[in-house]
Amino acid sequence: MTEAPLPAVGAVDFDAFVRRRASAGALVVQPRMGFMDPEAMRAGLAATRAADATTVGTLTLDSYTRLRDEAALATALAEGRPLNGYPLTTHPPEVTARMLAGLRGPDFPVQVRHGSAVPRHIFESMIGLGLSASEGGPISYCLPYGRTPLAQSVRNWADSTRLFATLRERGAQPHLESFGGCLLGQLCPPSLLVAVSVLEALFFHQHGVRSVSVSYAQQTNATQDREAVAALRRLCAELLPEPSWHVVIYAYMGLYPVTPRGAYRMLASAAELAVRSGAERLIVKTVAESMRIPTVEENVAALEFAAAAADTVRGWTGGEVAEVDADNEVYREAAALVDAVRDLHPDLGTALAEAFTKGYLDIPYCLHPDNQGRTRSYIDEEGRLRWADSGDLPFGRGGDGGGLAGRARTVTSAALHADLHHVRYAYDADEGPADDILAAVALPALPALPPGP
Amino acid sequence: MTAPARRDAHEPTPSGPGAPGGGAPATPGGTVVLGTVPSDSHTWNLVLLQLLLEECGFEVVNLGPCVPEELLVEECLRHRPELVVISSINGHGYADGLRLAPRVRARPELAELSMIIGGKLGVGGEAADRERGSRALLEAGFDAVFFDAAAADLRRYLLSGERPGEAAAAPALEEEYARGELAGASSAS
């Protein structure tokens, strides 16, 4: 590490900013956004900041940087081939500092989003630039992608989290968000998403990062989603050693609606989930999502629409969080998973690796060699995600517990295909969820989309 | 939907409708090694294919995403499968497949192994590109090529041994994967 003077970032505390805005009645909205060119990246951040919404900025990195493929990066930059994100570790630090100058600050924090199981070089760059907010996690950035062994990802993330924690000595509050609420993007029963988010937040704490956010990606049933966020909040309140945490909702991460109306319904439902469950932040998706990487304008339209949808729902609820049974099924399953994993070893990283070996954590349909692959899920008649087979998940302890243990049920290729498309079909139908919100919020001009398949 | 191209060492011209495919498919009931090319991190296509192959009566060894060429060769030597199925939807399947097949065929034990490839194999969508691409992949050593094909085409191929028809193809889920919508796509975070 160089001892270059830290830019003046001491006042930017990502979690404190988000919770302050949330308690003032605003849902903080955030895009996914990354461009190779510093000018384009700066324009994207400036447009995010100027949007008619309470926003935080995003610096999404490209996939070569995630994989630390320096040869591919050098070739792409030399040949001027476009990358799918901002190459933070390749652009000289002064270029990135200029790109950010005058934009990020106490009223506009910027988060680095990457997706790497080998993240040390990325954290080194962030520390050098005083970028104090990022996301990821030893499970959520490893098992869904590629073949990096889990034990290696755990070591990498422990090492990088400890390094990131040193930012505190330099006057900044390092913040990490767990990506555990996404996993494969769809068809994971909510209890496992909640458990992984909580476990990764505890892992960040164990390695010295005290300001965290936990994630939950919208799934297939609004009631079950609210139960899941309630479970997430209850577990964080019970287990996290400090109150510096908040919840971030991801708009649906699976096969997205292909019609503009379907896409806006999806985003309106995500905003409604955030408001009704008391989540503080929302990461949006755009109408272009099913086609290609969205433009800055499409992202701004999505941010402003999501903020307006959230305001509309807040007008209906008066800001009251919806009543949810605190002891709901998602909570009971998630608590069983978290407890069983923590009982395995005092070092949470060791416990996480062992939990996957034993099948106490087992992501349905995940093909990573360290995932046992004994679990299966399906969508029931009410649209709730359930276990078709809960494999060796530690639900059996203390009896059936009312729906905890999954009865083995065969999932056929045709049924899986239908379940993968469940949300798309529901939201693209003539009448769909959140039509009441769409009736109350002006839709942005709908872009012309390329014809469907 | 595109009918698969087939290799038949004993026929100078492509096999006509209803003609038996040379060397493939395997009789259901054996082991299939299922995988993808080294650069492809998508997995839902592999999960769906595993279920489909199991429904057709095969035991499946699913190698998961981003399979290095050496790993595929090792697993083929270890399991001696009836059939190897390579599925790719990131648009690099054509280029990676041209390198992959000779690597497998270079092992004398695997020279006669039945091996097929399918999915969203290239970035171009022209019929002529698909035809040219299929021919090149057959010459490289695949026994059948399902360029931009759907799961239903593969099921018919596996169960009938005959050339797949044009009707009632399942939705080409592969196109959705190819647009990078599902997790495993690099922009997910």
Automatic annotation (TrEMBL), chain B:
It comes from the Bacteria. This is Methylaspartate mutase. Residues 29-169 form the B12-binding domain. Residues 1-31 are annotated as: Disordered. Residues 1-11 have a biased composition (Basic and acidic residues). InterPro entries: Cobalamin-bd, Cobalamin-bd_sf. GO terms for molecular function: cobalamin binding; metal ion binding.
